[in-house]
Target: Cytochrome c nitrite reductase small subunit
Amino acid sequence: MFKKLLKMDKKFLIVLALLIGVFLSFSTVKTMAYLDSPGFCQNCHTMKSVYSSFVDSTHSDLQCNDCHLPHKSEIGKLFFKGRAGMTHIYFNTLGTDDIPDVIQATDRTKDIMNDNCISCHKSTLSNVSHDAKDMCISCHKTVPHGKGFKDDHYNKPPKSGELLENKGGF
Model:
């Protein structure tokens, strides 16, 4: 097969390679954008009430990952996203008994969210005193999800395999 490729017109091969590259780049960008979207994130059972409160908030024009992923480097963002994604896949597909009843942000995630709040709201921080607490979410926990977004369904443990049953939301 490789010999057949070498016998083909080089201009044709270059154009074909460029078209394949454009297609792969476009599809990768579209896939990553979808994986960042609130529509994708709300597919997990605990995220339904989080999503519905989010779409009614002042932050509804943002993507979930604008707040929940680090932005200091693209590699760090992708690594964090991949690690979190693999954890979610593990919990939702492998029948583990280790699925947490309620999802709680880790200290690392809280630090990331805090950094992102500060990054977007620098002007507010310079105009208003914010020295009362260590973290933005200490006082602004209901932003952007509103009060009471943790409904009865939120606090129920997920069923193992639920993501597969919903086909990942597709």
